[in-house]
Amino acid sequence: MTTALTSALASSFAAMTLGHLGRQWPYKLDHVMTGPEDVRAPIDLHPIFHGSFDWHSCVHGWWQVMRLLRRFPALAQAEEIRARADAMLVPDKVAGELAYLARPASGGFERPYGWGWLLALHDELIRHDQDRWARTLAPLAEAFASRFAAYLPKLTYPIRVGTHFNSGFALIHAHRWARRHDPALRALIETRALDWFGEDRGCQAWEPGGDEFLSPALTEAHLMREILPPDRFTDWFDAFLPTISQTLLTPAFVSDRSDGKIAHLDGLNLSRAWSWRAIAYGLPADHPVRSTAADAAARHVAAALPHLGDDYMGEHWLASFALLALDDLPE
After folding, report:
1. In total, how many domains does the chain have?
2. Are residues 58 and 173 in the same domain?
3. Which three-class secondary structure state does DSSP give residue 312?
4. Per residue in 42-79, pLDDT tens?
């Protein structure tokens, strides 16, 4: 099983994601209804992000196809991606997404997972040669950045679970966006990460949980790799994981890919690969964990990559995590 992002593999990812990016049903809403007027179809609530089973999967589906377009300009699906972006990433549709956020009942909407992914999408659009898509989406990115700025100071304790509520995963994406666009948010993220995780020692890594798609231990280490200089990260990592438990090195077994929660474990294997690669990249060449981390990343990718399209419960999101695992490293 290849662990390199080839043009053929990129094309297969794009084809899979374009197949559901605008698919309206089935759809799982994160939606607080305050009266009968709030009973509306997803496409009416979310003019852009109403596909891919749920809002956040649609957001990172867009991140994925735009990343592939930039990385592989001659991709077979390139013209289709551009045409869809021209039709969907337009001011009136962004205004509709902003109107949803402005509802009093939407304060906790997609916090923090979708917030981080929206910033990742905008950060990806900034990197394209033409900037109309990024400029159009900028007000939505700024709205979520403002939400992070208001939320992080009052989040006394980090959320360490391996699902959507994980603080570290969202802040990896938010920190990358803030490095380029919002120095104050960057400083806040770094302060909070150090407050929450800076003194963590001897992590036991009792994982995975039965429906987790993130490793609480590795996601935390990944975030610290993002915010600390290499020498400080190495010291922190050695104290945080003085012993690497076998469970962090062994890909999770997925018993039923038609069960949306159990299918999360394919995502766990891919996100672990992403984090192990980032950790290896951040350690000195002679560090004893570096080769172990790289080997673990390869095994986790190999365990999940053949199963991205086995069932719609994984198909609607796993290719994005495969792209993270294969094509994303700290900057």
Report:
1. 2
2. yes
3. helix
4. 999 999 999 999 999 999 999 999 999 999 999 999 99
**Count of Cβ atoms closer than 10 Å to residue 183 Cβ:** 10
Q: Give the helix/strand (H/E) hosting 282.
A: helix 264-282
Q: Whole domain around residue 312: which residue ranges?
A: 198-331
The pLDDT score that the predictor gives to residue 36 is 97
310 & 212 share domain: yes
Among residues 197, 231, 264, which one ends one of the domains? 197
Q: What are all long-range contacts of 45-51, with beta carbons under 8 Å and residues at least 24 apart? A: 45/100, 46/96, 46/97, 46/100, 47/92, 47/93, 47/96, 47/97, 48/88, 48/89, 48/93, 48/94, 48/96, 48/97, 49/97, 50/22, 50/24, 51/20, 51/21, 51/22, 51/23, 51/24, 51/27
Domain membership flag for residue 80: yes
Specify whether the CB–CB gap between 298 and 3 falls below 8 A.
yes
Which pair of tokens denotes residue 39? 């009973």
> 301 is written with which tokens?
């990718």
Residue 112 and residue 115: Cα distance in Å, rounded? 5
Burial of 164 (0-12, 13-18, 19+ CB in 10 A): buried
Q: Against a cut of 0.85, is the pTM above it? A: yes
Is residue 153 domain-shared with residue 246, that is, in the same domain? no
Domain shared by 117 and 256, yes or no:
no
134, 162, 197: which is the final residue of a domain?
Answer: 197
The CA radius of gyration of the chain, in Å to the nearest whole number, is: 19
